[in-house]
Amino acid sequence: MNEAKPQDGSTVKGYRTLAPEDIEMMNEIKGVSRDFLKKLDFLKFTHEGDPQVMRWLAIARTDMQTACMAACRAVARPDDDS
């Protein structure tokens, strides 16, 4: 995952201004995700010959990325996309 600069919400249309505790929570969520993805990378390295394991690790990576995005959106509470 890329290390993005912290945002205050004022420069991105459709987002409210984030409180410091919101930013801290989002950074914690991203940290948990980063740690989990590192563990998946380790498993990928140790099981690289098994295509079934690789498939499940890829699914786990995608699902973790989706979970992180959803949790961050829950904290940021952006406007509806409609």
TrEMBL record:
Acb2/Tad1 hairpin domain boundaries: 12-76
An example Gene Ontology molecular-function term: nucleotide binding
InterPro entries, per the entry: Acb2/Tad1_hairpin
UniProt keyword annotations, A-Z: Nucleotide-binding
Domain of life per record: Bacteria
Name by which UniProt lists this protein: Acb2/Tad1 hairpin domain-containing protein
Organism listed in the record: Yersinia ruckeri
Top-level taxonomy: Bacteria, Pseudomonadati, Pseudomonadota, Gammaproteobacteria, Enterobacterales
